[in-house]
Design goal:
By secondary structure, the chain is an alpha+beta fold. It is 29% helix and 32% strand. The strands form two sheets. Strands 4-5-1-6-7 form a five-stranded antiparallel sheet, with helices on one face. Strands 2-3 form a two-stranded antiparallel ribbon. Helix 2 packs antiparallel against helix 4. The protein starts with 24 loop residues before the first strand and ends with a strand.
């Protein structure tokens, strides 16, 4: 890890990192969002095959997550725009009242793809929230975090 902020110049002003001299490597990042829906909402959704009045909750969230990951460079001011090679969003039932949403993104590039994976997981969780808020306002997006990355200077894997 760096001991300084990479997105600040020598004068402390925001600055995009210059990756011009870095070499292209295959990079993969996986992020996870943990979401509390509550037992009642989970039971209603399972009873309706994960459909809500606005449509299929999981299918819509998957599409929204992929679309958001593709737009990360437009959403996060100092992120480099990347042409992702792949992006997959997977939603899993964790227990009787929680979901886990995973976004895995990959690219051959000079810079990492962690922000794309984090953005994809975040927007997929927000989409689940939007589609379920009519059922409850006690929904909670509890955690959004990087769980794994490969390529670049250093690999990372969350130890749980």
């Amino acid at each position: 890890m760096s001991d300084s902020f990479t997105h600040l110049d020598a004068d402390g002003k925001p600055s995009m990192v210059d990756v011009g001299q870095k070499k292209v490597t295959h990079r993969i990042a996986k992020a996870r969002a943990v979401m509390y829906l509550g037992k009642e909402v989970m039971e209603k959704l399972q009873g309706s095959d994960w459909n809500a009045p606005k449509g299929s909750v999981f299918q819509t969230a998957v599409i929204a997550g992929v679309m958001a990951a593709k737009k990360t460079g437009d959403l996060i001011p100092l992120c480099h725009p990347l042409g992702m090679d792949n992006c997959q969003v997977d939603i899993q039932i964790k227990d009787e009242d929680h979901l886990e949403i995973y976004c895995t993104a990959s690219v051959n590039a000079k810079t990492g793809i962690e922000m794309e994976a984090l953005t994809g997981a975040s927007v997929a969780a927000l989409t689940v929230y939007d589609m379920c808020k009519a059922l409850s306002h006690h929904l909670i997006i509890k955690e959004i975090r990087l769980v794994e990355k490969t390529g670049g200077k250093k690999d990372f894997k969350l130890e749980e």
